[in-house]
Amino acid sequence: MTPPDPQQVAEIAPDITLRCDKCKRKQSYPRSVDPSIPARVATIVVSRCDRCDNGDFGTEWWLDANGKEVVND
Ligand SMILES: [Zn+2]
C-alpha cells in the first residue's frame, strides 16, 4: 500500500467533471462558475443530465479526487 501523495491531494483541478449517472456522459465545468463548491470536490455526479431529463426531480452528489463522496458541512 502506498500512502497518498500530499502534493497530489492538495492539487486542485481548474475544472470540475460533471458526470451523468444515467448515460455516463462527462462534461467539464469551470470551478469559477460556482465558488460555493468546496475545493476538494473533483466530480459532480448528476442522476440525469439535460439529455436524460424526464421531468422528474434529479439529484446530484459530489465526489473527491479519490472517488469518495464529499459531504458539505
Ligand atoms: Zn445523461
Notes on the structure:
The chain has 73 residues and is mainly beta. It has one domain. Helices cover 7% and strands 33% of the residues. It has one helix spanning 6-10; strands at 15-20, 26-30, 41-46, 60-64, 69-70. Strand 1 and strand 2 (26-30) form a beta hairpin. The termini are far apart. The mean pLDDT is 86. The structure holds zinc ion. Zinc ion (ZN) binds at residues 20, 22-23, 25, 48-49, 51-52.
Give a topology summary:
Layout (H helix, E strand, L loop, with lengths): L5 H5 L4 E6 L5 E5 L10 E6 L13 E5 L4 E2 L3
Parallel strand pairs: 1-3
Antiparallel strand pairs: 1-2, 3-4, 4-5
The chain binds zinc ion.
The site of zinc ion (ZN) has 8 residues, from loops.
Put the structure in a nutshell:
This protein has 73 residues and is mainly β.
Strand order of the largest sheet: 2-1-3-4-5
Largest sheet, in brief, is: 5 strands, mixed
Q: What is the percentage of strand-forming residues?
A: 25-35%
The secondary-structure element order is HEEEEE
Counting DSSP E segments of at least 2 residues, the number of strands comes to 5
- How many DSSP helices? 1
Helix-strand makeup class? mainly beta
Write out key terms for the chains shown.
single chain, 73 residues, mainly beta, five-stranded mixed sheet, 1 helix, 33% strand, binds zinc ion
